[in-house]
Amino acid sequence: MGIVVNLGVFVADTAYRAERAPKMGETILGKSFALGPGGKGSNQSVASAMAGAQTHFISRLGMDDFAQMALATWKKTGVIPAVVQDASSYTGAAYIFIEDATGNNAIIISPGAAAQISEADVDRNRALIEGADVFITQLEQPIAVAFHALRLARAAGVTTILNPAPAASLPAGMLGFCDYVTPNESEAEALTGIAVTGPDSAKQAAEALLGLGAGTAIITLGAQGVLYHDGVQTVHFPIISAGPVVETTGAGDAFNGGFAAALAEGQSPLSAVRFGNAVAGISVTRPGTAPSMPARAEIEALLARS
Asked: Is 86 a catalytic residue?
């Protein structure tokens, strides 16, 4: 069992499904509503733990009902929290609009207490990070804190992954502390200025990311799969289908959590990408984010028949 440490955010997902998004000033009827656990860091941690990694999650919560949802989710899925609870703030929440016909989504995130994650939180968990096989973080918490944690992990020889989501400008040199950077198409474009529409343009963006210091670029392409580029080899992985797509929310988190778990247990980078692809392939056949993450046996079964 590999050890994954994740620094990130939990939010409660409030998911609304409708034929289309409302215009400003307009009210429309939705087709369904769901409340459940989310946040990129938390989702990825659930995916890693369900995939078999010993997974620790560094974050901040409020002291409210949504915090209890977070703690119950992590207990159920095997995530080990390294969390501070702040009574002066609230646990984060997200609005998710899901287009009924396609399952595509648009999201607004209010991170609440997690916006106050600090370098002190990272330093408090320094031994945890230094003892990891893989350290992974995103950009929902303050970017300076993510950068600090990446530097600490890299100095300890820990494999580092940055999922640069949501899209944001990065401080100079930050990608130089990332063994792997895992943007989707829009995030890759935000970082490189290169519009990513498929594997060919993804390779161009991946080369640009390596030029900015990343060790390996892995660009997720939705229905077009994943592009891996490490400066020596470029491999395009098609999606691994596990059935009809129900909802794409959380697919990137499923991939990142599965990829981190596979790397942590010693799989090769290419094998880990395929593993993460299978995790994502199963997740999109189910509604929700954290609740859609598959168990290890399901992942292995899909890989065996793919």
From this structure: no
Give the integer Cα–Cα distance in Å for 218 and 184.
8
pTM over 0.90: yes
Q: Which of 121, 133, 230, 253 is catalytic?
A: 253
Is 28 within 8 Å of 107 (Cβ atoms)? no
Contact in structure between 289 and 38 (CB atoms under 8 Å): yes
CA 178-298-300 angle, 5° bins = 65
Joined tokens for residue 183: 């943007």
Confidence class for position 111, pLDDT limits 50, 70, 90: confident
Residues 277-294 have a mean pLDDT of: 93
CA–CA gap between residue 194 and residue 203 (Å, rounded): 10
Residue 171 lies in a domain: yes
| pLDDT 10s digits, 37-59 | 999 999 999 999 999 999 999 99
Overall domain count for the chain:
1
77 belongs to a structural domain: yes
- Domain encompassing residue 226: 3-19+34-304
Can you give the pLDDT at residue 247? 85
